[in-house]
Specification:
By secondary structure, this protein is mainly alpha-helical. Helices cover 63% and strands 0% of the residues. It starts with a helix and ends in a 6-residue tail after the last helix. It holds the Pfam family zf-RVT.
Amino acid sequence: MALSKRGVRVGTNSCHLCSSGVDDTDHLFMGCSFAGDIWKWLCHWCGIPFRSFNNVSSLVEFAANWGHCPKKKRIFLVIVYGFLWCIWKARNEKVFRSTCANAPKVVDNILALVFDWVKHRGKFNNCNWYVWICNPFDIL
C-alpha cells in the first residue's frame, strides 16, 4: 500500500495472505483471516480469552497492560512481538519469494523464536522447550 502511494507499481493492493483485504498493516495484523487464525491459536495456547483489535498499537497496549504478574506480562508482550514479526515475515515470503503461507509453520516459527528470545534474553535460562510448548507461563 505504501509503495503504491509513492507511485511504485505493484501487482495488487489486496492482502497477500488472505486475498480479501487491503494490503496495509492494520489489515495484515488485525483484519487478515490468516493472521487472525494464528492469533486465536496463540490466545488459546496462553490461556487468554480471544480478543480482536482494530490496530497494532491497541494490541501492543493490551499486551503491555495484561495481567498482574510482571513476568507473565513480559512473556506475553514478547509473544505479541513474535506474532507481529512472524506474520510480517510470512507476508514478505509470499510477496518476494512466492512461497505459500502455512499457518502451522508460522505458529511453529513464533513458538521457537519467542522461546529463544525468552530463554536467552529474558533471564529465563532454565526454561524447558517441552514445558514451553504446552503453556508459555508454565516456565515460571
